[in-house]
Design goal:
The protein is α+β, with helices and mostly antiparallel strands and about 90 residues long. The protein has a single domain, classed as Arc Repressor Mutant, subunit A (Orthogonal Bundle), CATH 1.10.10. The chain contains three helices and three strands; from the N terminus they run H-E-E-E-H-H. It has a three-stranded mixed β-sheet with strand order 1-3-2. Helix 1 (about 10-25) packs parallel to helix 2 and helix 2 (about 55-70) packs across helix 3 (about 75-85). The longest helix has 20 residues, at about 55-70. The radius of gyration is 15 Å and the shape is globular.
Length: about 90
């Protein structure tokens, strides 16, 4: 059976455009400190520039889900924020 090539880069671009245009979520590609590959603040989604197109598509969907979750129930933002234990967060 022939394998099917999935155009993750195209899908990622389409999802990003949709999130920006329909939901007003800003998507930023930048260096994200290890071990993370993405971050969010409820209004913006940041994704590491070094991820693969497949990882980028996953992160867009996953982090958008948290964005919705945090905007529906702000208390969940506090729970999520306390769950991260990185040295940068202790400054």
């Amino acid at each position: 059976m022939d394998s099917i090539e999935i155009p993750f880069d195209e899908y990622s671009a389409r999802v990003q455009k949709h999130l920006e245009n329909v939901y007003g979520i800003r998507i930023v590609t930048r260096d994200i400190p290890d071990p993370l590959t993405g971050d969010l603040d409820g209004a913006e989604i940041d994704i590491d520039y070094a991820v693969s197109p497949e990882q980028r598509l996953f992160l867009l969907a996953h982090l958008f889900g948290h964005t919705v979750q945090w905007n529906v129930n702000p208390a969940l933002f506090e729970i999520g924020r306390r769950g991260i234990n990185l040295p940068l967060m202790r400054i």
